[in-house]
Specification:
17% strand; globular
Length: 344
């Protein structure tokens, strides 16, 4: 198969940042996707519906003319989130979910939840109104090995939450382990997961062998090849529990190539080509449309897109860099490398 036409895909996990960063991130993401779940971990974080709508307006101001882009907004869950905000979500046209970051888990997560029990009243409202809870699924205790933090989250945090709130809609975001894949498979259809292109295409050897490669560094961190293989298996299986979420995250080159480099891979500009490469390598390119275009919309209760895109099996060279924030650059995932699929 050398050409494939898909319903236009959506990105169910993306970081756009704010201010001048939007000049770079919004055109890149909207060139690929019709909708995107826009992460709320700004500084300060997006904690209310009013703040989310204001952020959406700032995003829309940078959508190129003639491009139909629909940012879907998320509230940042804290220990002090009011249950009233959940009721406001149900009345909002553009706010779709609440995001739980364990405090200190990743970029701009210092205001996250310190103990899941602190937000049980909010989770009860989420369950009542069927508003999805999006999870960065890692524990953050310093004594726990970074490669084990996802598994420990499943056992110690998420399993008790599901037992307490069996009808709560949950998206376990950017899963990285076979443990997480099997966990999602074992739950009801209320529990789903997103998978990034980097976790389908790479493992920790790619990041560490022959020298540390900072542009592969993300959180949750890349795991063993065996975990990568399981993620690829479930992503290409046609199971609607798994769908596209890039976790594309812009960081300036000097912040990434640093002794304390930022976590995150920038994939927005060539995201669908990266996914196509992963699916094609698995011999399952025909299953890309469900993963990229159908299953996420279905889970969120939104209509599937009606527009289409076409991919052709032709070389696509990832740009070496992008301009970002005045004189700074972003180095994208697989900068300068050749992909085998190209969006036309």
């Amino acid at each position: 198969m050398n050409t494939i036409t898909l319903t236009q895909p959506d990105d169910w996990h993306a970081h756009l940042r704010d201010g001048k960063a939007l000049e770079r991130t919004v055109p890149d993401l909207s060139s690929q996707f019709h909708r995107a779940i826009c992460m709320p971990n700004l500084v300060p974080p997006v904690k209310t519906v009013e703040e989310a709508i204001a952020y959406r307006k700032r995003i829309m101001a940078h959508v190129p003319e003639g491009v139909a882009f629909d940012p879907r907004m998320v509230l940042y869950l804290t220990d002090h989130t009011s249950t009233d905000e959940i009721q406001k979500i149900k009345q909002s046209e553009h706010v779709n979910a609440v995001k739980l970051y364990p405090a200190g888990a990743t970029t701009n997560s210092a205001n996250g939840v310190s103990d899941i029990r602190n937000v049980y009243a909010v989770l009860e409202q989420l369950q009542k109104h069927q508003v999805p809870l999006l999870l960065h699924g890692e524990v953050t205790h310093s004594h726990i090995d970074i490669f084990d933090r996802e598994k420990r989250f499943l056992d110690e945090v998420l399993q008790p939450v599901i037992q307490q709130f069996p009808d709560l809609k949950i998206v376990l975001e950017h899963i990285t382990t076979a443990d997480a894949a099997q966990f999602v498979l074992a739950q009801s259809d209320k529990v789903a997961a997103t998978i990034t292109p980097q976790h389908l295409l790479f493992n920790r050897n790619d990041m560490l062998v022959g020298g540390i490669k900072p542009h592969f560094y993300c959180l949750p961190i890349l795991k063993r090849q065996s975990h990568q293989a399981t993620l690829l298996e479930v992503a290409t299986s046609g199971n609607p529990k798994f769908f596209l979420g890039t976790d594309s995250a812009p960081h300036a080159q000097d912040a990434k190539e640093n002794a304390c480099g930022c976590a995150g891979c920038y994939s927005a500009f060539t995201a669908i080509e990266l996914y196509a490469q992963a699916f094609d390598q698995a011999g399952k390119i025909e299953r890309l449309e469900g993963f990229a275009s159908h299953f996420g919309a279905d889970f969120y209760g939104l209509p599937r897109n009606t527009q289409q895109i076409t991919l052709v099996k032709e070389d696509c060279i990832v740009p070496d860099s992008f301009n970002y924030l005045e004189d700074q650059k972003i180095i994208p995932l697989l900068a300068g490398k050749t992909l085998q699929w190209r969006k036309v």
